[in-house]
Design goal:
globular; 12 helices; 277 residues
Amino acid sequence: MIIDFRLRPPVGGFLNTLMYSAGERRDGFTRTVGFEPSAAAQRQSMDLLLQEMDAARIDRGVVVGRLAGVLGSVSNEDVRNIVAGHPGRFIGAASIDPTDRRKACQTISQAVEDGFRLINIEPGSYPIPMYADDRRLYPIYGHCEDIGVPVIMMVGGTAGPDLSYSDPIRTDRVLADFPDLNVVVAHGGWPWVNEILHLGFRRPNLWLAPDMYFSRMPGWEEYLKAADGFLSDRMLYASSFPFCPVLGYKEWFEKLPIKEDNLKKVMGGNAQRLLGI
């Protein structure tokens, strides 16, 4: 089974987010990391995306809901509809409003009951930005730890108003304070590549999904060595579609110099283990 751990379909609320509303900007980034844009992204076609997933032999994609400011929001209802409308193809990650602790915890419990497998937390991208170790988030982390649901934490790439919002020291504090909480660091903690890999070595509850920053961005060779070395059991394959094409990214990734056993783990085995699939 191959699982794409960050895939944003061209449907519903996703179409109102910056990744689709600013297509020229998105396609510029796609070319910067060495790919040609996907027709499914440019034409905003769900049918073309499913065809591209089939051509790439991607079994399932993780669809991430979000509550964000300028980046745009995607409701849990949108994610639920995508998962329900395409049985067996997508895995849902729910979002929360961190400003209301009780409501956030209720949302998490209900989402898990509804079949969501992960909770997405993007501290610096909230309408009122937070840092990863903001104490308002701690009861939410604790609830996720208590009920055993993994968290996707976006603390890399465009993670907030400035670079401080992806500070790996703050991520380290969360990992240390909640040792039984599995945390997937989306966008690979980029550009803090060596620092986030140190956390992966130091904290066994960190899982890493470099996604689009794996592809020929500064430091990507270090992700590669980690995927074929000490982090082979906790590295997760992700295209970050629509920023990278599903098919082109997969064809490029499977040719990387990663031992076959490790490649199988990175491209699906680790995600299956993390999500209990």
